[in-house]
Amino acid sequence: MGGDMLEVTITATRRPELLRQTLESFDKNLLCKIHKKRAIINVDPVGEDIDSRRVVDVCHEFFEEVIWNCPKQAHFPSAFTWVWESVTADWVFNLEDDWELLREVDIEILVRLMVQNSSLAMLRLPQFHACPTYMKTWNRF
User: Fold this and answer.
1) What mean pLDDT comes out for the span 30-41?
2) By residue range, what is the domain housing residue 82?
3) Could you tell me which SUPFAM superfamilies the record lists for this protein (predicted)?
4) Which of 41, 79, 96, 108 is the most exposed place for a label (fewest CB within 10 A)?
């Protein structure tokens, strides 16, 4: 990625500890080598009975710059639209607050695949089932 900015879009609910676990795993296994990164997060008012900004505060632990939206009503399609409309960088990595990356992934390989295959618009890690007590884990390609 060189010196390019990476924006990380996040759709979340009021689950700060789950988001912290997600960001710890992605920071350790994917994002740690990226120096220029910004989070764009939408926090829907669902989950714990806390101020949504506590979830935004978790993002500040991992990103110097955080663009955030805490709407009064939850609506996933609106949240997804808002984060993507807020993107300004050429490179975007999309997360949800309950994902966990279990092994190291070289983001430079992902970028190289995108650059070498101009017809690709996105790469997607495989999806696994999750429930409120079990995180989605992305440990294979």
Assistant:
1) 95
2) 6-137
3) Nucleotide-diphospho-sugar transferases (SSF53448)
4) 108
